[in-house]
Each structure stands twice: as structure tokens, then as C-alpha cells.
Amino acid sequence: MVILGNHYTLLPWEEELLLKRPGVGQVISIEQYPDPDETIARLGEMIETHRIKFVVLNLPRPASRKLIAYLTRLDLKGVEFLTLERFMERFLGKCFIPDEESALRFLQEIHHLNWFQRIQKGVIDYLGALLLVLLAWPVMIWAACRIRRESLGPVFFSQNRVGRDGHLFRCMKFRSMHHDCHFDPYTQKDDDRIFDFGHFMRRARIDELPQLFNVLKGEMALIGPRAEWDILVGEYEEQIPYYNERHLVKPGITGWAQVNYPYGTGPEDARQKLMYDLYYIKHWSIWLDFKIAFKTIGVVLKRKGR
Fold first, then answer.
1. Which one-letter DSSP state was computed for residue 191?
2. What is the tens place of the pLDDT at every residue in 60-113?
3. What backbone phi and psi angles, to 5 degrees, belong to 62?
4. How do strand 156-162 and strand 168-174 relate by DSSP bridges?
5. What are phi and psi of 83, to 5 degrees?
6. Number of neighbours of residue 133 by Cβ within 10 angstroms
7. Are 25 and 54 in contact (CB under 8 A)?
8. Rounded to two decimals, what is the model's pTM?
């Protein structure tokens, strides 16, 4: 695979992911030269030398006519060229976010689930949450007792989160931090606000179990974009184009972004996660939800921290 241009910079694990894909082979990045003929010559050299099957147009501006004509001839010979948007959805499982909010064409396929999809997802969410509550209640009682023993204060932690269509709700979690500790909107590595059992709960995702009751109340889904704090949402909507589009669906206890992107803080991490959230909304299906559920089991078993 040849990636022409540097509009989007691959993350380290994304390049590793590409190398594992059948037919990709090497991942070679080359720059676009001011002279189209020089770009075509360099591209042709890479294709011949490395037997390239895919060319990705990772360009900040539309390609020249001469370059497009060259690529369409290659397409007839079995070398496939992909726009940046198509490449990211097909190979990385995320939607590219344009830098300018004026690019409205980008929003055409990002929309609410239709009524039948919402009924499907709603029934699965309700029955699934009910089953998980019945299975997990011994763990929840044990967790409540351990919290009482290790840290003074309430067992549960609740906070305003943004739900579907921007509606606020109180999201419930088991408290994993000391009560009345210093304020910081982000959790840091080895955060001293978290008590010992709190670290275990967060790695095993036990602290998320009370959100099952949010699902039963219809405020959340089992799977969807992360339920984000309303204060952070206000900041991100000012800094990240299209951030409010993630509120087209209910937030979830787990989601496509959560199983594909590590825990992070700040606007750039939020922007990366938004790309996964938009892919989820655009390509939602029951099978995608099942895929996320299985990946979540893997994340929990590996106890990846957050």
C-alpha cells in the first residue's frame, strides 16, 4: 500500500493494523510533489518495485486531473486507489473528520437510526441489561461492600452526562475515587485519588455496572459512544468540528471507540474517538454491536486500564 500525501498521520498501532491486513503488504508513505509529473513518476516507481495493490490519496486538496487520469488507468490494471475517507472507513474503522465545519457533504450519511433500527436496538438493550443485572447482582453487592470498607463516602457516583439529542441525564457508577478529593476532569496514570479497590474496579469495568440501570431507564444503550460529562462536551463542541453528531444515538456502556482507542485525555484524543463514534453511527448494525461486545470481553479479560 502506498499512502500519497500527509493530510492524515497514521497512529503507530494503525500502521501495525494495516500490516496485518491481507493484501496490504508494506505501508509506504510518499510526499506529493508540486509537479504532477514528478509525483506520477515516483508513484509509478513504488508500484513497480513493491507490487502495490492500493494507493491512498491522503491529500489536503483535490488531486490534479493528470494524477486522477494516471490512477484510473492503474485501476484498470488491478491497482485500486482510495480516497482518504474511503480508506479510513474500510481499513481503520473510523470516519475522517474534515478540518472545516463548512464541509456539509460529510454529514449526509451520518444520521439518526431509523425507527426499525431503534426498536431493534432498544429491545436488545433492555433484555440484555435485564439479563446482566440478574447475573451481576452478586458482584455489585460485593463491590458495594468493598467500597464501604475501603473509602468513606457514598457507594455510588453520579454525574451529568449528555445523552441522545443532547438531553442531560444522571449517569450512575460505583465510586472509585476518594470522596471530596481534589478536582481534575481527567483521570491520570497512577492517579492518587483512586483507592486500591477502585483501581481494580476500573480495570475490570465493575464500576460501570450501575449504568445498567441507566439502560433500563432508556437513558443509555449497552453499546454506543461514551457518555461524556456535560462540561467537557461544551469544551469539545467548541474545539472539534462535528462533535455534537455523536449525540444522534444513545451513549453506551461500551462502544466502538472504547474497544479500538486507548484511554486518553484532551481534545485530540476526543477527536480520534469521535472518528470511531461517527463510523459506528454510520455503519450501525446488530452484527457490529455483537463485534463490539466480543471485543469488550477481550478488553475486560486483559484488564486494560483507563
1. -
2. 888 888 999 998 888 888 889 899 999 999 999 999 887 766 666 767 778 899
3. -55, 145
4. antiparallel
5. -70, 160
6. 16
7. no
8. 0.89
